[in-house]
Amino acid sequence: MESILFKEFTLQNGTKIKNRFFKGAMSEALANVHLQPTESIYRLYETFAKGGTGIVVTGNVMIDSKALGEPRNVVVENEEILPFLEKWAERGTINNTQLWMQLNHPGKQAFKDVVNEAVAPSAIPFPGASSRFFHHPREITPTEIVDLIHRFGNSAKLAQKAGFTGVQIHGAHGYLISQFLSPSHNQRNDEWGRDIDGRMKFLIEVYREIRSQTGPLFPISVKLNSADFMKAGFSEEEAIYVAGQLEKEGVDLLEISGGSIANLATPGKDVKASTNVREAYFLDFAEKLRKTVDMPLSVTGGFRTKKGMESAVHSNATDFVGLARPLAVYPDLPNLIEENILQEIILTHKKLGIKSIDNQLPLDSMWYTQQLDRLGRGKQVRPNHPVWISFLQALLKNGKEVFQQRRAK
Predict the structure, then answer these.
(1) Which of 64, 123, 138, 375 is the residue whose CA sits 20 to 30 A from 19?
(2) Which of 211, 215, 239, 238 is nearest to 225 (CA)?
(3) Where does the NADH:flavin oxidoreductase/NADH oxidase N-terminal domain start and stop, copy by copy (predicted)?
(4) What is d(CA 331, CA 334) in angstroms, rounded to the nearest whole number?
């Protein structure tokens, strides 16, 4: 009997997804100096498409060249980039693959050496040790907010024109939309702040603008935190409320995640017993969400076995199995599962055993980014690549910049 993981799913707008595998965004950092896609990106996404995943979401694409999340982000803001996007879309949609561009603005979560200034809902810096990596942000003006909303819509229209089959709005992980949603970051007293209705207004208006520029049949997904794991931050109750409003607006699919760059769910660290049993980090939240919304869901983070994936879909906790790091090591994982070649993925938390370095460096992100780079160069991944060699390679390539944090998703 065919696994439920390979059962077709049809979105409300009629878009057919060939299976239940959903590649969550991972940072590629493979753009050229002009912030355009490269052959490495084309090859990487062709590899994912050939690997059998139904929906492939790109790493975050920025809507403004003055607001990069990290070095070598792709930026989509005018038609000059269309020839590059067309090549990306052509290679990434083979094998009946849905290729969705993730659109993002970093807000204050932009490293000092890649932007001249940072904006945020309120002029509040990141707390604790993370603050040293980022500018003290200034409060974004209402005029600038409206401009960014139009930029999101324009970038989505360009993605559609180039042949991408959908987009995802990045509303999680501490970036600008996530900052607007969180009361710990957004302390405005105008229409863009105060209560949850005001704090989610930016996200809602971004969605409406994208919908108006792309039409009713173009899939639009939102990546939303279940919570941002900060004191007095965006809560589960608020996330459920926002999800309900997104469903009413007509969002086609919601991807559930959590945390921020300073506090992401990390494999092997602080994992609840229920998560170990069910694998995925946010399934418990997804089940709560199912009681109030009926929109298609993808839960990303933690899946490691075919059995766990099937169980999550069978139980109706999620419609799609969100995978990120497993696909950096096994880009053809859906094919391997379908052919009964692989039933379980074993990924370890990357550390050197030197406390001062392990606590300061995002060794996991560094290691997986290097695997993506290898795939982009047409090379095989190295599942057993030693972490200490990965660290030395990053140090030789990037110097002291290696001690900056990198986003995981």
Answers:
(1) 375
(2) 239
(3) 5-341
(4) 8
CATH 3.20.20.70 fits 4-348, yes or no: yes
Q: Which letter does DSSP use for residue 223 in this model?
A: E
Domain coordinates of the chain in residue numbers?
4-348
Residue type, 109: Q
- Could you tell me which of 409, 334, 323 has the C-alpha nearest to residue 369? 409
CA 180/CA 33 separation, integer angstroms: 30
Q: Considering the entire predicted model, what is its pTM? A: 0.92
Q: Token pair 């790109």 is at which residue?
A: 58
User: What six digits make up the tokens of 399?
Assistant: 């110097």
User: Model confidence over 259-316: pLDDT tens digits?
Assistant: 666 554 444 444 454 445 557 789 999 999 999 999 999 999 899 999 999 999 999 9
Per DSSP, 141 falls in state: P
Q: Which residues pair with 134 in a beta bridge?
A: 111
Closest residue by Cα to residue 63 from 138, 175, 165: 175
Q: Pairing relation of β-strands 259-260 and 263-264?
A: antiparallel
Q: Of 120, 138, 257, whose CA–CA distance to 193 is shortest?
A: 120
Q: Which residues are CB-neighbours of 74 under 8 A, at least 6 positions away?
A: 31, 35, 36, 37, 41, 58, 59, 61, 62
- Judged on CB neighbours under 10 Å (0-12, 13-18, 19+), 139 is middle
Please enumerate in sequence order all residues whose Cβ is within 8 A of that of 194, keeping only pairs 6 or more positions apart, or say none: 188
**Among 141, 96, 106, CA closest to 123:** 141
Q: What are phi and psi of 221, to 5 degrees?
A: -110, 160
